[in-house]
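Re: the 402-residue chain
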Amino acid sequence: MYSKLKKLSPLTLLFFIPLIPHFNVVEGFIHTDDLPILFFGIFILFNIKKLDLGFKQPVRIVILFIFIIYLLIQNQLVGNTFFNSEILRYLFYGILFIFVISTDINTFHEDIPFFLFLIVSYFSIQAYLLSYNFGTDLYNNWNIGLNLSDIDYIKGRTNGFQAGGPNSFADLITVTAIYSMFKKKDSWLPWIVFPSVLACFFTYSRFSLIVLLIFIIYKILLVEHKTINFVFLILALLVCSQFGLIERFSSDDNSGIEDRVEMQSGTINFIYEDSVKNNLIGRGVNSYIVKGEILYDADEFNENNVSYGPHNSYLFILLNYGLIGLLPYILIIIDLLYKWIKHVDKHKNIFKEFSPHFYVLVAFLLLSFSSDLLQNHSVSWFFYLSYFLFTKETENKESHEK
């Protein structure tokens, strides 16, 4: 065990990000959930000579750093500043990509997302059943633990340590569960299905649960022992039904669906009516607040603006970074589609199981239609890491087959 711990990849540090609440370390500059990234950067500085910096996959590196340069230029054009925290985050992703393609990722690291899944799923279940409440983080928006509800059939919504509230917590549970069910042996599947459904449901995030169930059913159809896995799935849903599953999907008591429709339709109308220039280069990061169907200038908005986005990552990107800023994500989608088509063509089977990273990426892209997930970096770092690992994995396989 000790020898395995010594061989742990520094990427393991990143999995602590969603387990650390957001508080100030150096006010306005460094926060507690930045510390794993800071330690990761220190490790790279001390080990840079050991990295194989042959600049593999130069096209992707160039695209990523062109995007960073674009953000710098955009800041000058629309924000009258040169630097902001968003640029630092994408600079970190650039360094992360170079690290991933320059080092060997050992197999022990590959179980770390599974361990994260166990932590967040069982925390959600216990927080709901035992009414944990650890107060709020710096955003002062959602309790860590159970957030009591005034809706009759809901005791409350669970939230984890990450930023973003219950919906982001549900997304985190979903993507780590999906990774786990496609990474672990099939014998693990019932023990992933049952807690993941309960944990996700107790956040009362409808769309996350729908995405999770789609992947669970797909995975069950791929395994040999389907009956036992469907039994565990049905048992989990029966338990959820005792806590308001049917009522949650048959009503919109807290106007969650209506709010999302208003936010997204309002953002679409705003973009449609705005100038070609603004839609091309964007309006700058966090320059507008979306509340209902109305978009406010962020400088004139006096309320807590933490949760006021369009609840759609693609609209968020269009609003902030424009069509140019959306282009890298379009290229990622095209790349995933191309690799999946190659995979299907090679095996002549549309249901042939693919890389766990692929399914995580698809889940992120689906979840982003109903949340600002790609902009919540306390969770979205896993999207970028998964894409980098998937890219390295697929290209290594292709090189071995030549």
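The CA atoms of residues 53 and 102 lie 6 Å apart.
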